[in-house]
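In response to the reviewer comment on reproducibility (Comment 2.3), we provide here a single inverse folding case reported in full, input and output, so that an independent group could reproduce the run without further information from us. The structure tokens appear first.
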């Protein structure tokens, strides 16, 4: 091997690396498309879960909370809130209902949204659904 780095050597490294990483990308894409149907949970999406998602969006919950790692980091992760509250939708509903109207002075706190019982139940169903998604270990700890 010569002591100088030629243009053809650089070109060969560039093309070889491009082909290698393109093939790696294809393999990883194929593996993902093969694995995702096994993790799919679409049959669990009921009209109640869809309504809960709508309540989530209308009240901009993602403006403060994260859900499966996406959203703002102002308030706790809610991807596992159903598990944290002892697998109880009633506990989630009770927590949301118990929020004081004026908040807690001196600290950040969740506002009172005054949701109807139907909306609260739908939101709890949505959070239950989100906690049952196979997230491959996310969030990494119980508290989110």
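Designed residues, in position order:
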């Amino acid at each position: 091997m010569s002591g100088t780095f030629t243009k053809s050597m650089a070109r060969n490294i560039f093309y070889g690396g491009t082909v290698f990483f393109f093939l790696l990308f294809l393999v990883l894409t194929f593996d993902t498309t093969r694995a995702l149907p096994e993790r799919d949970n679409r049959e669990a999406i009921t009209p109640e879960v869809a309504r809960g998602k709508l309540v989530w969006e209308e009240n901009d919950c993602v403006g403060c909370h994260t859900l499966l790692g996406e959203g703002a980091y102002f308030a706790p992760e809610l991807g596992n809130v159903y598990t944290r509250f002892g697998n109880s939708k009633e506990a989630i509903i009770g927590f949301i209902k118990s929020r004081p109207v004026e908040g807690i002075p001196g600290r950040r706190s969740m506002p009172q949204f005054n949701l109807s019982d139907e909306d609260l139940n739908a939101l709890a169903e949505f959070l239950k659904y989100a906690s049952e998604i196979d997230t491959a270990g996310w969030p990494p700890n119980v508290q989110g």
